[in-house]
Design goal:
The chain has about 325 residues and is an alpha/beta fold. The protein has one domain: Luciferase-like domain (TIM Barrel), CATH 3.20.20.30. It is about 45% helix and about 15% strand. Strands 1, 2, 3, 4, 5, 8, 9, 10, 11 and 12 form a ten-stranded parallel sheet that branches. Strands 6-7 form a two-stranded antiparallel sheet. Strand 4, helix 3 and strand 5 form a beta-alpha-beta unit. The mean pLDDT is about 95.
Length: about 325
């Protein structure tokens, strides 16, 4: 069973006309609209500053797991996760405890999304060490071992180069049947996709259909080396979505999204699915044909109404 088929990511907490004191209620309304309209998972970013390409660094940014815990109390069906947790931001044993707590609060709907982290700006601001890429990937590998053990074993121990646990307890246990799935974000072909093959239940990639086909072929190669069936891994892609009742209106909204996120035409077309419901369904079909099991989208203008249109369209696209 796929970890997710249709996901909604909310990357921005800046909404026109919504004051900080009303922010969570508006976000909860978006989450409810997503759940009711066909999305099966809901995601927030794990950042402390807003990131380039989404908005100014001083825009509102809520802490991810606190936010997900609040949304768990307002929803009933959607899975909940961070896309993706930066490995450098939390001790991995603590992360396993946090995600397990989210799973208990939500009645078994947590997903652990994790990656190697990349935003040196917020690392410097918050005082987190920002090691070179090779070390961050090595830390990711150890964190995956620890998290998997703490989610599945009663009192695991682990001694690595960067992290150690000693008969670590994690009670209450996860309640999701089969355990909390782990999604690894990133498409690095030598290290990241090898970690996906060894440890992950799902992966999340970027790119157009040609890029997706290539990355999935690389992943299949890593799976073959260790004797794992790649069909066991849910393959997803993160991208933007602009859907409107007419193609002309979708293109207008798409131009606004591209301008707001400072995307040139090539970047926009490789990242964003844009059109009326028929066109969106056709574009989604090309990605599914490339080998994806699911797709996760963020919207240029996330409101309950736009989320409902997106959810209905994607539910149709996924059949």
């Amino acid at each position: 069973m796929a970890v997710t088929r249709i996901g909604l990511q909310v990357p921005s907490f800046t909404f026109a006309g919504v004051a900080d004191g009303d922010l969570f209620e508006y976000l909860a309304a978006i989450a409810v609209a997503a759940e009711e309209s066909g999305f099966d998972s809901l995601w927030v970013m794990d950042h402390y500053y807003q990131i380039p390409g989404v908005g100014p660094r001083t825009n509102a940014m809520l802490e991810s797991y606190t936010t997900l815990g609040g949304l768990a109390a307002r929803t009933h069906k959607v899975s909940l996760g961070a896309l993706v947790t930066g490995v450098t931001y939390r001790n991995p044993a603590l992360l396993a405890k946090i995600v397990t707590t989210l799973d208990v609060i939500s009645g078994g709907r947590a997903i652990l999304g994790i990656g190697a982290a990349w935003n040196d700006d917020e690392h410097a601001g918050y005082g987190f060490p920002f090691p070179p890429t090779a070390e961050r990937l090595a830390r990711l590998g150890e964190a995956l071992e620890i998290c998997r053990a703490m989610l599945t074993e009663p009192a695991p121990s682990f001694a690595g180069r960067y992290y150690t646990i000693d008969h670590a307890l994690n009670y209450p246990r996860p309640v999701r049947p089969g355990g909390i799935p782990i999604l690894v974000g990133g498409g690095g072909e030598r290290r990241t996709l090898a970690l996906v093959a060894r440890y992950a239940d799902a992966c999340n990639l970027f790119g157009d259909t040609a890029t997706i086909r290539h990355k999935l072929a690389v992943l299949a190669g890593h799976c073959e080396k260790i004797g794992r069936d790649p069909a066991e891994i849910t393959k997803t892609r993160l991208g933007g979505l602009v859907v409107a009742e007419t193609v002309a209106e979708a293109e207008r909204q798409g131009r606004a999204m591209a301008a707001a996120r400072q995307m040139d035409e090539e970047h926009f077309r490789s990242y964003v699915v844009c059109g009326d419901p028929d066109a969106v369904c056709e574009q989604v079909a090309t990605y599914l044909d490339a080998g994806l099991d699911g797709m996760i989208f963020n919207l240029g203008d996330a409101s309950p109404d736009t989320v409902r249109l997106a959810g209905a369209t994607l539910a149709r696209a996924f059949g």
